[in-house]
Amino acid sequence: MVREPGSTSSTVGASSRDLILDAARDLITKNGYDGMAVSDLCAQSGLPASSVYYHFGNKLGVLAALLERTFDELHALFPNPSSFDGLEPIDRLEAWFTAACDSLDRRPDYLRLLLAVSVGPHKDSETVGATVRRIRDSAHASWVDALTPVLAPHGDEDGKAMVEQLAVLGRAMTDGLSVANSLDGATYSSNVAPFVALIRGLVRQ
Predict the structure, then answer these.
(1) CA–CA separation, 16 vs 103, rounded Å?
(2) 84/52 same-domain check
(3) I want to staple 77 with a disulfide (CB 3.0 to 4.6 A). Which of 83, 103, 124, 139 is the partner?
C-alpha cells in the first residue's frame, strides 16, 4: 500500500479497514453474505486480500466488524428514552419510538444487514452471534426503558411481565419491518401510530 504524504500507518490502516467494510456492506446488500467472496471484497475496495486477512482474520471477521460498525453508527443516531423524561410516560414512549423509527428510516441498510446475516450457517458463528446478541440486547433494553414507566411504573410483577412481552414484540416488529421496507418500501415511521394506539388501549384497560 502506498502511504500518502503526511499520513501515519494507523491512519492508513483505519482507512483501508473502512474501505473493506464499505465494500462488504454494498456486496452483502446486493448478493447476501454467502454471495460475497474475499476476491469480491478486494475488487470492490481496491485492496489486496492480505489487507482483509490482516484487519479481520477471515470473511466472518469482516461480517462481525461490519455489524459492529453499523450498530455504532445507528446507535449514535438513536435517541435514548431518557431524552424524553420530561414528558408523560405514554408521550415519552411515543416521542422515543418516533425518533427511533426516523433513525431507522434514515439507515435502512442497518436492519437489512441483520436480515442478510440471519440465514445461512454463518449465523451460528460465535464471532457473529456475539455481535448480533449485543445489538438485540441493546434494542431490548431500550424497549424496556421506554415501556416500563407506562405499564409498570410501580414495579409490579404483572406489569413487568407485560413490558418484557411487549419489548419482544416491539423488537420483532422492527425486524419484520426490514422485510417490508425491502419489498414494498414501507417506512418504519408509518407504524408508530398503530403501536402507540395499542399501548394506549392497554393502559386504559
Answers:
(1) 27
(2) no
(3) 103
Cell, residue 134:
449485543
16 with 49, same domain: the answer is yes
Q: Does one domain contain both 183 and 96?
A: yes
Angle between helices 89-106 and 108-117 (to 10 degrees): 80
Beta carbons of 89 and 147 less than 8 angstroms apart: no
79: Cβ contacts below 8 Å, ≥ 6 apart: 96, 99, 100, 103
Rounded to whole angstroms, the Cα distance separating 49 from 144 reads: 43
% of the chain residues with pLDDT over 90: 49
Domain span at 33: 9-57
Q: What SS3 state is found at 15?
A: helix
pTM over 0.85: no
CA distance 128 to 111: 15
d(CA 109, CA 71) in angstroms, rounded, equals 11
Q: What is the pLDDT of residues 138-176, one digit of tens each?
A: 889 999 999 999 999 999 999 999 999 999 999 888 878
